[in-house]
What we know:
Nuclear Transport Factor 2, Chain: A; 39% helix; alpha+beta; six-stranded mixed beta sheet; 6 helices; single chain; 193 residues; 8 strands; two-stranded antiparallel ribbon; 2 domains
Amino acid sequence: MPEARSEMLPHVRKAIDSRSAVADPTDGRKVNLVTDRPQILGLGVMLGGALVAAGCAASARNDSDSSPRNRCAEEIRLILERQAQAWNDGDIDAFMVPYWHSPDLTFSSGGKVTRGWRATLDRYRQRYPNREAMGRLTFSDLEITMPSRSVALVLGRWRLDRAQPIGGNFSLVLRREAGKWIIIHDHTSTDQP
């Protein structure tokens, strides 16, 4: 967290020193601190968001249980636990809650790409029409990597215990938006018998 603040300080110092303008980090324009209130508000929201997101930044120097990286990994593990519980309760709608509710969501499996939240939900409903087909879901061997402050990559294994058990590997890409982690891409493969 201290590093995130020090990265922001040059912009803050420049604003204080000039007392009238600061470079907008998104396009390099000068923003007048007195007359450009909407831009200043937007810049403040961006800077504040960066500091909040820094709370989940990967911190290679701090591996304590309370490090930002570990807190984010725990949040993501909880999401997956809730998903497994929803699945095991037979509630595909609740299972889909953490997925990006967007036509830009991608789900790759079996050599095909499904695009969009609704299409992904429909795919799950078609492949798993009842509790017997759904079986009991477990996730294991989770590896959570934070390539940036607001992006996570999750690798793991999944298993459905049912009359004919199946399982395989998965990878998820999650993005932090409005303080919540959402799954924006899911790639799932099934082990060959």
